[in-house]
Amino acid sequence: MAVKTFEESMKELEEVVAKLESGEVTLDESLKLFEKGIKLSSICQKKLDEAERRVKILTGSGSEMTEENFEAAE
User: Fold this and answer.
1) The overall pTM is greater than 0.85
2) Domain segments of the chain: what residues?
């Protein structure tokens, strides 16, 4: 199985949430979707944590690290 990108995982997670919110799935399907959503959420969080570590490394100066807040693009 190929490794999904953050964007692919996030899109799939959004689809899972939409199905759960629709209320049109059985209890068994809801449980399976919930489990899938938890796994996708974990994948996304790991990818975000990795990106944060990389940004901290890239913005560090020498041995001293500096953290910068990024403003959302409008």
Assistant:
1) no
2) 6-57
